[in-house]
Write a structure and sequence with these properties.
Radius of gyration: 19 Å
CATH class: Alpha Beta
CATH superfamily: Divalent-metal-dependent TIM barrel enzymes
Number of helices: 10
Strand order of the largest sheet: 1-2-3-4-5-6-7-10
Structural class: alpha/beta
Shape: globular
Largest sheet: 8 strands, parallel, barrel
Distance between the termini: 20 Å
Amino acid sequence: MSDEPEGARAPWEPLWVLFTKPWPALDGAALGSLVSSLGFGGIELPVRDGFQVEPASVSALTPFRTVLADSGIDIRSVAGEPTRQIIEACGEAGIGLVRIMAEIGPDGYAAGESRLRRLLDDVLPVLEEFDVAIGIQPHHGRYISTAAGLRRVIDDYPPERVVAVWDAAHNALSGEDVDLSLEQLARQLGLVNLKDARYDCTAEAPGAARHGISRPRFVPGGEGMADWDATFSELERLGYRGDVCLTAQYDDLQRPIAEVVGDDLRRAREAFEARTRR
């Protein structure tokens, strides 16, 4: 959260970032061209098996970033395991953030929370060494899913190394209020993810619709429960000046995903421009 008086804050135009998980087969030149044509200035890159940069060949991160730069695109963060090799590669490439989620296993919530603390304790010296941060994203379901749950852990760590990645869709799926959840994470808010989701009844099990059994479905912006207008208004109030990442996660699309992403970026820009009029 900014300590500056509201009137003294510099104008904010976020760098619009795209999570490129839907395009694992594109080489760097093609990916950069696509992302630029859609109106984004940066990406979050999955560093996972089957993607352009894999954990076993993470030294390719720097040359891949160079190729993207030819299209005016920067790698702003990676999604992957926070191993020493990946953190070191991010530091060498000038990429400041590794995003993860905190899964809760069959041994329960307290054990999952303890695992996250041990992980952060282990990687903190490596993050310091290579000037990189780790970002933890709340996720609905069997994860640390709420702002309060995440804050309970990360409050104990330096905000320049351990940050929150707030996600509009998972916030809505977890039933959290936008204003309250963002305020709780403001001190360590490192990235904002925009997507939308809702719960739909499913007939996959007998009597599902009758009994109201539902499952989450990720949808284009404006078709779910996430409130992007409230998100930008609260970010403005808190003085957030970081990136905004559209995650390109959708279920059952009837149109090419690039078209839907382009529409969502336009919706996001409209919500951003209206943030001070709410």
